[in-house]
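Response to reviewer comment R2.3. The reviewers asked that we include at least one raw input/output pair. We reproduce the pair for DNA repair protein RadA here without editing.
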Amino acid sequence: MSKSQRIAYACGACGVRVPKWVGQCPDCGEWGSMEETAAPPRQGVGGGTSAAPTARRPAKPAMRIGTVSAAQAASLPTGIGEFDRVMGGGLVPGGVTLISGEPGVGKSTLLLEVAHRFGEAGYGKALVATGEESASQVRRRADRTGCLSEELYLAAETDLGAVLGHVEDVKPGLLVLDSVQTVIAPDTDGVPGGVTQVKAVASAITAEAKARNMAVILVGHVTKDGGIAGPRALEHLVDTVVHFEGDRHSMLRLLRGVKNRFGPADEVGCFEMTEDGIVSLADPSGLFLDDAPTEPTPGTCVTVTMEGRRAVPVEVQALLGKSVKDGAIPRHTVSGLDQARLNMVLAVLTRRGGMRLLDREVYATTIGGIKVREPASDLALALALVSADQEIAVSADLVAIGEVSLTGQVRRTVNADRRISEAARLGFKSAIVPKGSVSERHRGIEVVEVETIIDAKQAAARAWARRG
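Raw output as returned:
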């Protein structure tokens, strides 16, 4: 066998190449993922290659940047406010977007609504090419959600050539491919959904999008860890990457931007899943506050977290169980919070706050199914634990914002003024924040600056006394 025909093996999960077959990928650790593939020709020594490069002429001459028109890259608003917010204003002609999410979270429903709105807005035809469902199944969803635009076309295909043929016939302004892992490129080696196939399909669709100035949305599968399945190069090929996330048992859905060449990459859109489809939530603040009890309850405290550029108040709840026997490991359970940060806050309250919590069962959660991972929620979690331990309710009109360090200090967080302004808008009367984090005066809310977790406990105690 000649050198140019030597066989190598590539991982179907991450794409790494090895010279011989192994049972476990040495890069990502996946078992049984190595696939046989032809090795690329080697580069010659001293800069030479095995084949002489072909001289090429540019298709168009280079232009001065000042003479290049930016009109073609203008965003086209779909009318779905939260979707447009994350996308930086809407869909960009020629732009390729990759959206991922857990199975059943509502990706197909959202994108069917986007395609319907695109056609209704008069931007041109929209083509939905599905490899996971039949056209009749998509039509039933369209009947349920009212997405029956005359400019919306459906095609059930798993062959790349057939998808490109539909694009040639329909000439859409928007193509939705659901999903990129189900489409097969016949001229490319590899199993469907493998690294080689996914890369080939995405490259062909991207080239078609640029050539036709056509907006494209690719649906991507996720791995068991929540990452996008396929090669990492897939995220580099596209212009925008967004994650659609949410709990199946909750009506809340979040569209979170990860990469965006046309706008901010840290935006988050909020949606509510209903029987009639997905509805944008322009002001989701009330979803994450418990409005059931009429009186404050021990073990609760409100913080204000940043979801993208949006400040959202979230109620943190804590419950302390009985102390365990010597030698037993107490149960620490969280929902919507970071387990490691709960353990750290418990240790700080025990060592710096004079409390005994490490030997007790602890349960902590957030309201509304939102996941809070930022350190700014540490102070609210700490006060909720103190409230649960002392059986004294935190004032219902108080919010706590700040990161708790291992030394017991309360550290500053970003966007403190924006968080306080949102709390004041919703009617909160006082806020406990780290010292030096506020740069402007806020009307309607008393701002209490603290340096340590002891200061925060005393500030909360004064609020308790005023309430009593």
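The radius of gyration is 27 Å. The first strand starts at residue 7 and ends at 11. Further pairs are available on request from the corresponding author.
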